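Weekly structure sync, notes
Attendees: PL (lead), two postdocs, one rotation student
Agenda item 3: pending single-chain targets
PL asked that the sequence for the first pending target be pasted directly into the notes so everyone works from the same version. It is reproduced below exactly as submitted, 381 residues in total.
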Amino acid sequence: MSTTIAKKIQMVDLKGQYQKIKTEVDAAIQEVINSAAFINGPAVKEFQVDLEKYLHVKNVIPCANGTDALQIAMMALGLKPSDEVITASFTYVATAEVIGLLGLTPVLVDVHPDTFCINVAAIEKAITPKTKAIVAVHLYGQCADMEPILALAKKHNLFVIEDVAQAIGAEYTFANGAKHKAGTMGNVGCTSFFPSKNLGCYGDGGAMYTNDDELAKKLKMISHHGQSIQYVHDIVGVNSRLDTIQAAILKIKLQHLDEYATARNKAAAHYDKAFANNPKIKTPVRAKNSTHVFHQYTLQLVGVDRNKIKEQLAVKDIPSMIYYPIPVHKQKAYQSERNLSANLVVTEQLTPCVLSLPMHTELDEATLNYISSSLLELINA
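Predicted structure, written out during the meeting:
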């Protein structure tokens, strides 16, 4: 039987995480304030270099947020209005939002029933002569199946953009044994440093990564008003930069990223064991060719009222979240005839049954026991 727990349970415990690195973070912030180099200060370049080394990628281009990263990537790849871009419907709207914002055509496809990542067979069926790019979303913390996606892109001469907002640090293994970090396999990877992300700052932030030096130059130009030399604007750009204070914080937190992934996996393993063999709870499936960094721990509830369970958990002071209750293809802004007529069976099966439990670096055994025992009581009642 579950009992009450003294410590307030958080979906993401940023305060607890901060307390462990407070001295380092406070010193880094103070150093930026003392220098007054708030824009493009030394910490931005230092973080960029550190992240390049961590990811084993040639170029990291910091920017203001993850949505900007996606937009700048599509601009840099030269995508034009009416070009089709294929991505998953079961994701956060930002992925499709930038496609629409640039006058491109979002083509929304289904996901794999086990990993929730974009389905390669669905991508192939959706390709037309107008298709120019694929956005592979590494959902919840593990990589989409990149090897066949890259092969498909090569066959049809398509760009591949990786949305790494939820999976920084995850590693994909190819059939030949080669290992690559999420975001470093396609033409460009795009990530967010929103505070709740696995590598999160204390405000907004984002970055793009690429091994293509020419593309990197263009990404950097676009993010700086289309200029490579001050006051000389060769292409249309935007204003999107990572603040120095945020870069200083990220530089500290990057040193702990693998440690954070270990803590998240430990919490996920606890949940897995607690819910094993319960026919009403389907725990997350780990892809054989990808590590999982558990940005979210998302269950499928079978044969029970998901919304009621969520409400009952809240009564027990246990937060939970639904990612995502309405798929993108059913959102008014993206309801094209093509997307509405698409056969997104898995996506429509997932939306009424997924539920994400608290997942962060500060979950202790007592909290995990209370969450899992409480959910089991409610499910089996």
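Discussion points:
- The mean pLDDT is 96.
- Residues 14-35 form the longest helix (22 residues).
Action: rotation student to compare against the earlier draft before next sync.
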